[in-house]
UniProtKB/TrEMBL annotation:
Signal peptide extent: none
Protein name: YlxR family protein
PANTHER family: BLL0784 PROTEIN, YLXR DOMAIN-CONTAINING PROTEIN
Taxonomic path: Bacteria, Bacillati, Bacillota, Bacilli, Bacillales
Source domain of life: Bacteria
Annotated ranges, domain YlxR: 9-83
Record SUPFAM superfamilies: YlxR-like (SSF64376)
């Protein structure tokens, strides 16, 4: 028996189940905006990706985000998200290490 239930989510690209904290959430807000949500708390339909740009590219190739978000993600938006993804990757990795150090 596990001491504590860790919420798991599936990466939409590689289909791997991971603790929510180790995934980057991409959200489609009720306003119809698609953006990266590092807080994981923004309202809207979310899609999760491992914090790896390879997975982002895989998701783009498979149009996995379109399916997960039930919306068309056009090429420009994928470009913008990829740029943001690369930007937040370092920040995300740092936060992950910090979480890992917690008892
Ligand atoms: Zn993945």
């Amino acid at each position: 028996m596990r001491p504590r239930k860790i919420p798991l989510r599936k990466c939409v690209a590689c289909q791997e189940m991971m603790p929510k904290k180790e995934l980057i959430r991409i959200v489609r807000t009720p306003e119809g905006e698609t953006l990266i949500d590092l807080t994981g708390k923004k309202p809207g339909r979310g899609a999760y990706l491992c914090g790896k740009v390879e997975c982002f590219r895989l998701a783009r190739k498979a149009r996995a985000l379109d399916r997960a978000l039930k919306a068309t993600v056009d090429a420009d938006l994928y470009d913008r998200l990829e740029q943001d993804f690369v930007k937040v990757q370092d920040q995300f990795e740092a936060a992950k290490e910090l979480n890992a150090r917690e008892p």
